[in-house]
UniProtKB/TrEMBL annotation:
Pfam families xrefs: KARI_C (PF01450), KARI_N (PF07991)
Organism: Catenulispora acidiphila (strain DSM 44928 / JCM 14897 / NBRC 102108 / NRRL B-24433 / ID139908)
Annotated ranges, domain KARI N-terminal Rossmann: 2-182
Amino-acid positions noted as binding Mg(2+) 2 in the UniProt annotation, renumbered to this chain: 191, 227, 231
Protein name: Ketol-acid reductoisomerase (NADP(+))
Pathway: Amino-acid biosynthesis; L-isoleucine biosynthesis; L-isoleucine from 2-oxobutanoate: step 2/4; Amino-acid biosynthesis; L-valine biosynthesis; L-valine from pyruvate: step 2/4
Length: 331
């Protein structure tokens, strides 16, 4: 069973006694910077001169510096820029400003797990990874609650890295919900596997295959869209609230039958063997190497996939149908 920590296990005064730089002000960055500030932590945001996020951070009352300046001042540096650019920001802004006893923090372990960033001995290397999107992390915090977080320590130079990571997690509300101890390796490999095989990769492929099967059989795309994409949210919401058992309790017995009999014919032993192959490529580093090489080359294949996605009939069908649903338009 996982080791869990709550508010009483974490000492907020540790992070309150440090100078924190949050690099990046996107989904995670804004949540961390604002909630740390509201927890009485001395925080500055690091963004490059032309960044579109600068204005938002300044309007929220935060001090905004360049990443280099922010790291010069700080002794705890949280790197929340996109994973493929972390290497560059680290080399230009973080590394030149690291001193013995400083700490670098991540919200996801990819750059450490695959050796893209190699911190020097003498600094703590920690992770605080909320298990939710940044906007939920911030909203829960302002409502007096929190989103569960994973914490990990890759390098404990000071001997107090775990206490520091717990203190940071408390500063963004994580220990209100509960914090689970993991490793950079476990977090990185499971996070990549989840998004590649199940959440984004797997779910999207399942939706498209279902939509294509119905439309190729002559059914109307609008009807296929409702059945294969739109209604998925209703099903996932039930799973989110109460697991597979609540979903099966709520749907008809006919639908439930699908989970026992038809589903395993769709996602069968071959699919599972492919999942194991995908996991192997994540574990041996080839997935990350390929993705970083694609990113560094200017995303040539990615751009082709995005274009193909725009041409897929499910895109135009969805646009039309969503415009009929006022509650989605307003969101
Ligand atoms: P994001 O894309 O939402 O935001 C990135 C921020 O970095 C933006 O403010 C952008 O202006 C800034 N930025 C981009 N290039 C920069 C540069 N060269 N120098 C300085 N700033 C730069 O990113 P995100 O989704 O918040 O992801 C940040 C980290 O958090 C990643 O490691 C990601 O894996 C992790 N994470 C994200 C989520 C999530 O909910 N999105 C959840 C868990 C972990
Ligand atoms: Mg993002
Ligand atoms: Mg994830
Ligand atoms: Mg991820
Ligand atoms: Mg139906």
């Amino acid at each position: 069973m996982a080791e869990m920590y709550y508010d009483d296990d974490a000492d907020l005064s540790i992070i309150q006694g440090r100078s924190v730089a949050v690099l990046g002000y996107g989904s995670q960055g804004h949540a961390h910077a604002l909630s740390l500030r509201d927890s009485g932590v001395d925080v500055r945001v690091g963004l490059h001169e032309g960044s579109k996020s600068r204005q938002a951070a300044e309007e929220a009352g935060l001090r905004v510096l360049t990443p280099f300046e922010a790291c010069e001042e700080a002794d705890v540096i949280m790197i929340l820029v996109p994973d493929p650019v972390q290497r560059k920001v680290y080399a230009e802004a973080v590394e030149p400003n690291l001193a013995e006893g400083d700490a670098i923090f991540f919200g996801h372990g990819l750059n450490i797990r695959y050796g893209l960033i190699k911190p020097p001995a003498g600094v703590d290397v920690c992770m605080v990874a909320p298990k939710g999107p940044g906007h939920l992390v911030r909203r829960q915090f302002t409502e007096g609650r929190g989103v569960p977080c994973l914490i990990a320590v890759e390098q404990d130079a000071t001997g107090t890295a775990t206490e520091l990571a717990l203190s940071y997690a408390k500063g963004i509300g994580g220990t209100r919900a509960g914090v689970i101890k993991t490793t950079f390796t476990e977090e990185t490999e499971t996070d990549l596997f989840g998004e590649q095989a199940v959440l984004c990769g797997g779910a999207e492929a399942l939706i498209k295959a279902g939509f294509e099967t119905l439309t190729e059989a002559g059914y109307q795309p609008e009807v296929a869209y409702f059945e294969c994409l739109h209604e998925l949210k209703l099903i996932v919401d039930l799973m989110y609230e109460g697991g597979l058992e609540k979903m099966n309790w709520s749907v008809s017995e006919t639908a439930e039958w699908g989970g026992y009999v038809t589903g395993p014919r769709i996602v069968d032993d071959r699919t599972k063997a492919t999942m194991k192959q995908v996991l192997t490529e994540i574990q041996d580093g080839s997935f990350a190497n390929n993705w970083i090489a694609e990113y560094d080359a200017g995303l040539p294949n990615y751009k082709k996939y995005v274009e193909a996605e725009e041409q897929h009939p499910i895109t135009a069908t969805g646009k039309k149908l969503r415009s009929m649903m006022s509650w989605i338009r307003e969101g």
